[in-house]
Amino acid sequence: MQIRVSVVAPPAVAELVVPRAGGPGLRFVFSENIVLEQYDDAAQNNQLAGSHSGFVTTLRIATANDGLYPQGSHLFQFESLYRFNAVPGTPLQKGQVIAQGVIHGNFDSSGFFTPSDPHIKLAIIGGTDPYATARGQITERDPAIANKLLDIQL
Predict the structure, then answer these.
(1) pTM (2 decimals)?
(2) What domains can be seen in the chain, in order of their start residue?
């Protein structure tokens, strides 16, 4: 099953933990509303479908002698939860899907984050209700638009 959603509300971001200014351990929380764009191959009517919430934690900021990542680049752990509502007139069912992964990239001079890979991929590690056996991946094809494709295997 494939579910495509888009963010319709800007993320609410707040710092939770600041062990040292901007360094490893800095954690942000976010929560945003999503609309249903597509279910499998069928276009949907962009009705409010639920929310996407979670945490982003700084794991590493590469130094000059990092050896693996370019100097100044950032590595983040991403943990999120999609909470779906049953949307009338669509096959979307009420339940949750949990995603995790690591994202690498750089901030430009204006503070905008650009991932190293233009398609951010996160692992689906489980879910609830009809998504209790969910596995697969989530692909953010264009993070600037916040369009997400959930490729769920049940």
Answers:
(1) 0.84
(2) 2-153 (2.40.480.10)
